[in-house]
Amino acid sequence: MLHIIRDLNDQFCSLCNDDPVRPEIPVEQRITDNGEIYVLKSSEGEPLAVTCVKFLEQTPHSVADLADITINTTTAVFYSIWSYAAGSGRDLIVAAQASIRSQRPEITTFVTLSPKTEMARRFHLKNGAEVYRENLDTINYLYK
What are the start-end ranges of the H helices in the chain? Predict the structure, then answer.
């Protein structure tokens, strides 16, 4: 079951304390007019995986670009993902993309803003993404 966090009072906001990828980003910067958090939950309501998404006008080069507030969003940027159960990260990416496609038809591009780690590379390539662009400190993987 997919749960979307759009409010700072959501009970699942505390999961951001577990973020191993971008722990420096406060929850208040994750949930904005152009930012949401997606949680994949088990049938019992337990979190299985979490991803943070920003909706921007273009593909960002760095974490600083995530602060951009845009009105004409066309790009969903998955900038952090972590899992509590094996295989759940992939399931979450698929479910979040499907949800975004149905709720935000203006979004036509799905990319990541990933750290330059072998773990991130293996995860995204194994799950159907391709390298879109290599930046100074990050890599953008493109999901189709």
Answer: 27-30, 88-103, 118-126
Which 8-state DSSP code applies to residue 92? H
Taking the C-alpha atoms of residue 113 and residue 105, their distance in angstroms, rounded to an integer, is 21
The amino acid at 110: F
Cβ contacts of 51 within 8 Å, gap of 6 or more: 37, 38, 78, 80, 81, 89, 92, 93, 96
Q: Would you say 19 and 82 are in contact if contact means Cβ atoms under 8 Å apart?
A: yes
- Tell me which CATH code domain 2-110 carries: 3.40.630.150
Which residue type occupies 89?
G
Cα separation, 38 vs 53, in Å, equals 8
Q: Which two tokens stand for residue 129?
A: 């993404």
Render each residue's pLDDT in the chain as its tens digit; 144 residues.
999 999 999 999 999 999 999 999 999 999 999 999 999 999 999 999 999 999 999 999 999 999 988 889 999 999 999 999 999 999 999 999 999 999 999 999 999 999 999 999 999 999 999 999 999 999 999 999
Closest CA to 50 of 9, 8, 4, 113: 4
CB 97 within 8 A of CB 143: yes
Determine contact, residues 75/66, Cβ cutoff 8 Å.
no
